[in-house]
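Our platform keeps sequence and structure together, in a single record for each protein. Such a record has a labelled line for the sequence and another for the backbone structure tokens. This encoding replaces a full spatial description with a residue-level series of whole-number codes. Below, we set out a record of this kind in full and without editing:
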Amino acid sequence: MKLIAGGLVAVIALMVLAGVGLSLWSRRAPDAGLQDGRLRPCPETPNCVCSETTPADAEHAVRPLDTRGSPEAWELLQSVIAGLGGTIVSGDGHYLYATFTTPWFRYVDDVEARLDATVGLIHIRSASRVGRSDLGLNRRRVETIRRHFERRLQQTPGGHA
């Protein structure tokens, strides 16, 4: 019985150490930024979603945010991201880079957005820095951002339902 309990403690200790190691690894800076004026494509792993995917990459696809022609949409997106716990690292009037830190092991995930004012869309990408699967966290994050963004956009004077 003592051998089983000792083995269980060792397994739990290894799992915690692995989690801490991945957490530390996730804190390294990613290759953020636009590539040829677009958000970077997702890697082959399922822990990333992006609205600028190719038609063949449905696994990673999410819809862009519709600005509905609102001049406040870009600032509104920044407010939504900050309100949901994101930290805006950098950005200009057309590109935004933010991070979200998971509560448990403090993994850092990256969110990037690109305003395409000519068509009234904000393209968005959310990706985990480490691991293979995120159990759908990045897709849920983008959809949560979308819900809050659309709700707040409807409340602005130029926002349309």
User: Anything to note?
Assistant: Helices lie at 2-25, 73-83, 137-155.
